[in-house]
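Quick review question:
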C-alpha cells in the first residue's frame, strides 16, 4: 500500500506534538490538553515509571481506574517506556 507507514501509539502523539503543538489533543471533564501538553505529561509519567519505580522495558504495569485523562496518560507512558500496560 502506498503512503502507509508504520506507527506506534506513542509515535502518533510525538509527531502530533511536533507538527501541531497547540492543537487540542484531548478534552476530559473541565480539562483540555494540547498535543504539546499531552506529550510533556506522557514523558514525565514515563520517566517516573522508569526512573522513580525502577521498571524496565517489557515489565508489566497493572492499571485499575476509571476512564480519564490520567488513565490515558498512564497508558501512553507505558507505551513510550516500552512497558506492558495491563488493564
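Suggested answer, residue by residue:
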Amino acid at each position: 500500500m502506498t503512503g502507509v507507514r508504520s506507527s506506534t501509539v506513542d509515535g502518533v502523539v510525538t509527531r502530533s506534538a511536533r507538527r501541531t503543538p497547540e492543537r487540542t489533543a484531548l478534552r476530559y471533564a473541565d480539562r483540555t490538553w494540547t498535543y504539546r501538553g499531552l506529550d510533556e505529561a506522557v514523558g514525565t509519567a514515563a520517566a517516573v515509571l522508569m526512573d522513580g519505580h525502577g521498571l524496565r522495558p517489557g515489565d508489566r504495569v497493572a492499571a485499575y481506574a476509571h476512564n480519564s485523562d490520567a488513565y490515558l496518560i498512564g497508558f501512553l507512558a507505558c507505551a513510550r517506556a516500552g512497558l506492558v500496560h495491563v488493564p
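Why it works: The CA atoms of residues 21 and 36 lie 5 Å apart. The chain has one domain: 18-86.
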